[in-house]
Amino acid sequence: MDIKKMHEKPPYGMIAILFFGAFVAILNNTLLNIALPVIMNEFQVKPSAVQWLTTGYMLVNGIMIPASAFFVQKFTNRRLFLTAMTLFTIGTALAVFAPTFGLLVMARMIQASGSALMMPLLMNVMLVAFPIEKRGSAMGMFGLVMFTAPAIGPTLSGWIVEHYSWRTLFEIVLPFAILTIVFALWKLKNITPNTSVKLDVFSLVLSSIGFGGLLYGFSSAGDKGWGAPVVYGTIAIGAIALIVFILRQLRMEDPMLDFKIYKYPMFALASVISIVLSVAMFSGMILTPLYVQQVRGISPFEAGILMLPGAVLMGIMSPITGKLFDKYGARVLAITGLTITVITTFYLSRLELHSGYYYLMALYTIRMFGMSMVMMPIMTNGLNQLPMKSNPHGTAMNNTLQQVSGAIGSAILLTIMTKRMEKSGESLFKDAAASGNIPADKAGMAELQHTIGLEAMLDGINYSFLIATFIALAALILTLFVKRVRPPKYEEMKSPATDDSIKAKTVQG
């Protein structure tokens, strides 16, 4: 396909199909989280077992996303999307009728094998379909899908689980998934360039063990504790496999995941900022519901409503931020957004036992507004510096690092919260004993323990938010070094022979 002609008239219909497929996949993943207790009761499984519905999904993502660079280069975008969407649909259908818990876990893993390929594929199609000076707007629309689905998921799921069977969560997704395949067969064309790359099986094994081990280890730490052999064992094995994997990729002529892209300074800086920001973002998504439900005693559905405006605003702002990025660049947006994020995160570290519902909603919404100005502009600015043939590696790297940093950040912040909570609880009980406020009767003791538990948890959450404030501040400082990538001229971009020699120039801004 003629790139110049496509840049003049991008294939919006085709991109809409890809957007819808990605939206359905992300929505399905966020729908299930609230339904886990109901599924646990129906199949009579323990909490550690039911977590495999999310852990298994995440592990397959950890294996498939790093390999997505190979798949995007090897296969046409039409074939890859239809394969991914078919796998997702088969998994969804299997989940609707799954008679046993084991089969349900298998269904989720089949779903994941399809959905893991959709996001990197969609990003690559947009990087090819739009000229570099319009990528901000395009990636802004991508952000709309990326943030709106998680926004709708928990609230919709809470309402469905309250009124219907958990299987309805899969039943409502299935017809949309089938419809996406039908439209894709009719409308989808091939636009991404393909090369005859060969899959290095040993690299795939190392990548699977490395990223999978880290994701599983850090995600299990909150439930099993850092001292559990399965936690530190899988983290250690994952880290060793990852080091061997990176060294192997650096020596290969056609690597599965090209780490040489880190020679481009703005891409490298964008990766570091995205990692730091993912940790800060996940902190709010985990700590806020904990405070709302455990400390304030608000129902899961109302907790979902509280977080909904922030997530919806983030989705609405994404295309607006994209247009602003095209006009002003990433630096000014990121500095503004991260300043808002730092201030609001700090205020979240000063919550009280009876902080108002609407105060919390406003604070969380403003924080999400700030974050909406950072992630996509920073990532797009970094990707703009890569030559076109490196786009699959850049998108695969970004998606993988977000998954891993989110899991690691969540585990570390939850550990910080737990340790602080234990220390605070012991201190509060000692203070009560020293002042002679220990009740003699069981009812009084139970009430005291409950009060101390709430105050200790509040202190743990506030302390974790304070750590998250410093993490966001670190991202803000790094953003000061961001330079705007100047788009190379079309004549420079269109020649494959000069692709390696082109380095997008940077200007301050």
TrEMBL record:
<keyword id="KW-0813">Transport</keyword>
<feature type="transmembrane region" description="Helical">
    <location>
        <begin position="328"/>
        <end position="350"/>
    </location>
</feature>
<feature type="transmembrane region" description="Helical">
    <location>
        <begin position="356"/>
        <end position="379"/>
    </location>
</feature>
<protein>
    <submittedName>
        <fullName>DHA2 family efflux MFS transporter permease subunit</fullName>
    </submittedName>
</protein>
<keyword id="KW-0812">Transmembrane</keyword>
<feature type="transmembrane region" description="Helical">
    <location>
        <begin position="166"/>
        <end position="186"/>
    </location>
</feature>
<feature type="transmembrane region" description="Helical">
    <location>
        <begin position="400"/>
        <end position="418"/>
    </location>
</feature>
<feature type="transmembrane region" description="Helical">
    <location>
        <begin position="267"/>
        <end position="292"/>
    </location>
</feature>
<dbReference type="Pfam" id="PF07690">
    <property type="entry name" value="MFS_1"/>
</dbReference>
<dbReference type="InterPro" id="IPR011701">
    <property type="entry name" value="MFS"/>
</dbReference>
<feature type="transmembrane region" description="Helical">
    <location>
        <begin position="230"/>
        <end position="247"/>
    </location>
</feature>
<feature type="transmembrane region" description="Helical">
    <location>
        <begin position="198"/>
        <end position="218"/>
    </location>
</feature>
<dbReference type="InterPro" id="IPR036259">
    <property type="entry name" value="MFS_trans_sf"/>
</dbReference>
<feature type="transmembrane region" description="Helical">
    <location>
        <begin position="298"/>
        <end position="316"/>
    </location>
</feature>
<keyword id="KW-1003">Cell membrane</keyword>
<feature type="transmembrane region" description="Helical">
    <location>
        <begin position="139"/>
        <end position="160"/>
    </location>
</feature>
<feature type="transmembrane region" description="Helical">
    <location>
        <begin position="12"/>
        <end position="40"/>
    </location>
</feature>
<comment type="similarity">
    <text>Belongs to the major facilitator superfamily. EmrB family.</text>
</comment>
<dbReference type="InterPro" id="IPR020846">
    <property type="entry name" value="MFS_dom"/>
</dbReference>
<feature type="domain" description="Major facilitator superfamily (MFS) profile">
    <location>
        <begin position="14"/>
        <end position="487"/>
    </location>
</feature>
<feature type="transmembrane region" description="Helical">
    <location>
        <begin position="463"/>
        <end position="482"/>
    </location>
</feature>
<keyword id="KW-1133">Transmembrane helix</keyword>
<feature type="transmembrane region" description="Helical">
    <location>
        <begin position="84"/>
        <end position="106"/>
    </location>
</feature>
<keyword id="KW-0472">Membrane</keyword>
<feature type="transmembrane region" description="Helical">
    <location>
        <begin position="52"/>
        <end position="72"/>
    </location>
</feature>
<dbReference type="InterPro" id="IPR004638">
    <property type="entry name" value="EmrB-like"/>
</dbReference>
<feature type="transmembrane region" description="Helical">
    <location>
        <begin position="112"/>
        <end position="132"/>
    </location>
</feature>
